[in-house]
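SEVERITY: medium
COMPONENT: batch folding queue
REPORTER: lab tech (J.R.)

DESCRIPTION
The queue accepted two submissions in a row. Attaching both inputs and their returned structure tokens so the on-call engineer can compare them side by side.

ATTACHMENT 1
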Amino acid sequence: MTHDGDVDSLVRQRIRGLRVARGWSLEDLGSRCHQSASTLSRIETGARRISLDQLSGIARALDTTLDQLVASDSDDDVVIRPQHDEEQGVTSWQLHGDRGPQGMTVAKLRLTRPAPTRGAGELPVHPGRDWFTVLSGTIVLILGERTIRVQAGEAASFSTMTPHAFGAEDGPAEILAIFDHGGERTHLH
């Protein structure tokens, strides 16, 4: 099968899968995208080519986008490879390839760097909030004048307008974090 054939088949499977997941018949989808049930049946089975205007209407009716319908089905969409930053003492796995709702990014971080000591430089500030839960180890969170220890099984949420930084205490620690745009730029890049 050609690459175009692979994409064509995948799009047809996605259309049928989304329709069935909603519990819709071909007639139900047809009434929502202004196409006949027989046309949709031929599209789903491959007996008819899909035109761009048909695909656009089907995507709207299924509450999805053209991009989502034709997105690649390669292993690169499945496997999340770590990004190592030895200098910063951080390995990260960005778990949400495209930015999530309201510009949020979800990432798993393995921290080997210790938390900065007071007077070691200015702590970063950015608009928004950061949230993380500690999966293993202990994280030391410097938040303004406070030093807060967050242990495995605990979580932290804080305004990032307060000068802040965090690092591992007594060995590596892993966290699952949700960052807004400013947090992503500060903590992942």
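ATTACHMENT 2
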Amino acid sequence: MSKISTQKAFIFLGAPGAGKGTFSQIFVSKFGWVQLSTGDLCRKHIAQGTDLGKQIDFAIKSGKLVDDVVIIDMVSQWVDEHIKMAPGIIFDGFPRTLVQARLFLELIQKRFSELVVNVIQFEIPDSLIIERLSARKTCSNKQCQAIYSLLEQSTQKSQKNGICDKCGSVLMQREDDKSETVAARLQIYHQHAQPLLDFYKKNNFIIHRINAQAPLQAVQGELEMIAGI
């Protein structure tokens, strides 16, 4: 595949369960964008049993953020491999800390200054996050990782209970989606979210606030409008 110049990028900023992964998948499948999910990268390293994977696994099960140096090492490698292969990029839940944000800004300025980066802030109350995460199931196939919901009103329910529609693998609940770790994850998110927003404002990033409680089609339409699609 010939490489093309990438012009557009989103930083998806929001609490776990706010919908970042769902809309990332929509843009990937519908518009050919690429998605950088540090969560998926972490799980890949865990599955492969690498040294990084062992560090990541311990942090996730403890309800803590993975070390910034580990995250940046993984992200840098992914950027080198993928960033010029699609018309747009979604940075799903990354950066998560000010250290990551500063390093990421340096990366853009030095190597990818052609990118027009928009920050999308997914706004949603914690009570709904807890409800969503406790009902969220993920495909156990590490190459798929499709996300589903057990909520009655959700549009993301699998056609066959407990089975992935895309690849037929069994659905599972991630360790970091279990109720005992959700509160800790939300606390960590809120601790870092406002400093990140302040950093983006200071460095002239365009910030769009999205009501993540709105119906899926409404949120998707707003994102497409922002992206100029």
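NOTES FROM REPORTER
Residues 8-125+181-227 form a domain with the Rossmann fold fold (CATH 3.40.50.300).
No errors were logged for either attachment.
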